[in-house]
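Hey, sorry to bother you again with one of my protein questions. A protein chain has come my way and I'm curious about its shape. I'm sending you its amino acid sequence along with the backbone structure tokens. I owe you a coffee for this, so here goes:
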Amino acid sequence: MDVRLREVQDSDLPVFHAMLRDPEATRMAAFTAENPDDRARFDARWAKILDAADPLRTVLADGEVVGNAAVSGPEGRREVSYWIDRSHWGRGIATAALRELLALVPERPLFGRVAADNEASLRVLRKCGFTEDGRNRDFAPARGTELDEVILTLDA
């Protein structure tokens, strides 16, 4: 499978919104928007994201838009994030996309945060060299409750 990153295009946004509305994917991600169906809020958030200078890429698998990957946040506390359409889970796409993103962003440290029970995402981060740095308990809007979050770090 050919996994590549490219600049985000306006035509990607409806695909991203549809992915965000998948209840199982949103539950797994846990720390998401309170109402993923709110298209106006989605559009406003993405307008702000696209205006930022942070690296943000669309993930393509064999030419098909299957997700996005980004680095964002303040200097010294920048975090990676990625979202892969659930129909493509378990195929190594997130790992390949994150590796490509990390090659584009030389700064370190970088951080990752993931729900403690999201074993697949923890594996992706660990395969890419992230190590557990701590844990936090926070409110997860997608689940309507507090849950444990693992904080991972990628050093130089």
Notes: The helical segments are 13-20, 23-29, 39-51, 93-104, 119-127. The first strand starts at residue 3 and ends at 7.
